[in-house]
Amino acid sequence: MIKVKYFGKLRELLGVKEEEYDAENLSLADLLIKHIPSRHPEIAKEWRATVFITVGDNIVMSEDGTPILRYHILVNGLSRNLAYTLKDNDEVAILPPVGGG
Questions:
Q1: CATH (residue range 2-95)
Q2: Nearest-angstrom CA–CA distance, 1 and 68
Q3: Per-position pLDDT tens, the chain of length 101
Q4: CA–CA separation, 68 vs 58, rounded Å?
Q5: Which contacts qualify for 65-73: CB closer than 8 Å, 24 or more apart?
Q6: Which residues contact 25 (CB under 8 A, 6 or more apart)?
Q7: Which has the closest alpha carbon to 4: 28, 50, 79?
Q8: How many CB atoms lie within 10 A of CB 36?
């Protein structure tokens, strides 16, 4: 099982602070783009627009073909790219962008 923790607007949007997914051997991208929105279809569009940079309903991709994130994603406290393969007992934290000045 993979534990996913939500912070900021995502916690309010989903109405939960954490969930568990049976997502072993999936990429982090698959979890964020497919699994979480499929569990919450009523807010899937808003999920994509909040977590990723979007144009219309489409997620904007970087030059290397990976989705561009608005939020910070940590796996077991470490920043990982979206191709990272999740393992049993991984903990994913989805953190809002930090501003300041």
A1: 3.10.20.30
A2: 26
A3: 999 999 999 999 999 999 999 877 899 999 999 999 999 999 999 999 999 999 988 999 999 999 999 999 999 999 999 999 999 999 999 999 887 55
A4: 11
A5: 66/29, 67/29, 67/32, 67/33, 70/97, 71/10, 71/95, 71/96, 71/97, 72/96, 72/97, 72/98, 73/28, 73/32
A6: 85, 86, 87
A7: 28
A8: 24
Whole-model pTM: value is 0.90
- 10: exposed, middle or buried (C-beta count within 10 Å: 0-12, 13-18, 19+)? buried
Computed on alpha carbons and rounded to an integer, the radius of gyration of the chain in Å comes to 13
- 71 secondary structure, DSSP code: S
Q: How far apart are CA 80 and CA 93, in angstroms?
A: 11
* Nearest alpha-carbon partner for 91 in 68, 71, 73: 73
Give CA–CA dist 68/54, Å, rounded: 8
